[in-house]
Amino acid sequence: MTRIYFDYNATTPVDPAVLDAMLPYFSADFANASSIHSPGQRARSGVETAREQVAALIDARPQEIVFTSGGTESDNHAIFGVVASAQLSRVAGSSSNKSRAPADAAAPLSPFHVITTAIEHEAVLNTCQALEKQGVSVSYLPVDRRGIVDPESVRRAIRPETALITIMHANNELGIVQPLEAIGRIAREHKIAFHADAVQSAGKIPLDVHALCVDLLSLSGHKLYAPKGVGALYVRSGTRVQQFLYGGHQQRGFRPGTENVAGIVGLGKAAEIARAAVTSDASRISGLRDKLERGLLERIPHTRANGTDAPRTPNTTNIVFSGLEGEALVIALDLKGLACSVGAACSSGAVEPSHVLTAIGLSHEDAKASLRFSLGRHTTDAEVNSALEIIPAAVSQLRALSPTYAKQLATHRS
Predict the structure, then answer these.
(1) Considering the entire predicted model, what is its pTM?
(2) CATH 3.40.640.10: which residues of the chain?
(3) 346 catalytic residue (yes or no)
(4) CA–CA dist 398, 247 (Å, integer)
């Protein structure tokens, strides 16, 4: 069976050129990048080249790039780090004893305030919920039916104690791209740190941290054809972020621990490839995405696409197949050789419908009947053509067995 993979938002295959770049660092150049001998310095050179490559992808400076284990760690470090830094600054400013030790990391962080949205990835939402347990106030801003947060709602949510605004660049389920430039200008106007989770936009659309007005930005390797287990955090020079890992002096002590040299080199090579190919990839992939989306809506009755009237990444479509359980359709398609998902891979097996889809106004039934198809660099026109045969057939088979769909159809006809 020839398999079709339409789940690139969950993870991507490692690009062959990325793998080739990594291989020497598993063998000949295996040394610790912190060692001062020649083998160590060859490893160090690989790390620093990768830092330059990642910086170039987002128009940052190499010294502003911190390598991490992935997007989740980058998000956690940005959010916890900014709030903890604000807490330490307050303690230092209010203390009359200049020799006083820094505040305990476990001390309550109130009354600081964080602004985010209702459709963030769990790496952000769960981090914010952890802050709430420590006394931090969090505003979860709503989005409109397109999935867009209004920049003016961000402005209205700002308080004197607001320490951080954290808003994703592109949504992992819908591909919706948020107006970060406008939000960033508001954050700068109020001198508030601004973080963006760009895990789903890096490599798909051009990124410029200066144009976006972000102070911190998270990336993940396995979303742009690098291996799993490596990512990066952009920290604009001068941004105050408290470290939360302690150990050696790697990465200027900000993120200690022996570097994952092979993974970092892979991320750097993937960033270099993405920077060169982002425009051509976007043009080709968006054409395939639109063909798939249009074909499914034309061939299958009682379907609709979510978020199509908002800016989207070029590879993602999210479609409601009314009257079906999305997970059942995913399994049926998998048996026919096509891989897709009901939403975020991190939420697989969740009983509740997607928080993203309910936030844009879908009913629980429609949210659970929605599937995400995310295409990528290796997707072909032939695969889309095959999918346009496979998916309608699977939907028809499941609907013939679905009492929910029969009920909805009878209601529609009446």
Answers:
(1) 0.92
(2) 16-274
(3) yes
(4) 55
pLDDT tens column, 150-182:
999 999 999 999 999 999 999 999 999 999 999
- Torsions phi, psi of 67, nearest 5? -85, 140
pLDDT for 372:
98
Residue-wise pLDDT for 193-244, tens only, equals 999 999 999 999 999 999 999 999 999 999 999 999 999 999 999 999 999 8
The one catalytic residue in 128, 213, 340, 346 is: 346
Outline which parts of the chain fall under CATH 3.90.1150.10.
4-11+278-413
Neighbours of 94 (CB within 10 A): 8
Domain 4-11+278-413 class? alpha beta
Question: Which of 299, 332, 298, 293 has its CA nearest to residue 315?
Answer: 293
The total of other beta-carbon atoms located within 10 Å of residue 172's CB is 30
In CATH terms, the fold of domain 16-274 is Aspartate Aminotransferase; domain 2 (3.40.640)
Nearest of 22, 14, 10 to residue 377 by alpha carbon: 14
Tokens (6 digits) for 218: 């998270």
